[in-house]
Specification:
There is one protein chain. It contains two helices and no strands. It has helices spanning about 5-25, 30-70. The chain starts with a helix and ends with a helix.
Length: about 70
């Protein structure tokens, strides 16, 4: 590997990091209030669907237990 390729890699890495820094300046970050609201919404929805899927799983488990009992 010659010296040009090595310096080319470092130049490309530097260009990449400069581009990342420029893009990060364009990001619109949420306010603290927005962050809290969306975090609470995610937690509530996750809890709801967790309980819902647990209930559906329990119902199907009982159904399959009864079906399995019929064929014994």
């Amino acid at each position: 590997m010659n010296m040009d390729k090595k310096s080319n890699i470092f130049r490309r890495m530097g260009d990449y990091l400069r581009d990342v820094r420029g893009e990060m300046k364009k990001v619109t970050w949420p306010s603290k209030n927005d962050l809290i609201k969306t975090s609470i919404a995610v937690l509530v929805i996750s809890l709801f669907f967790g309980v819902y899927l647990f209930g559906v799983d329990m119902i199907f488990a009982r159904i399959f237990q009864h079906i399995g009992g019929i064929f014994r």
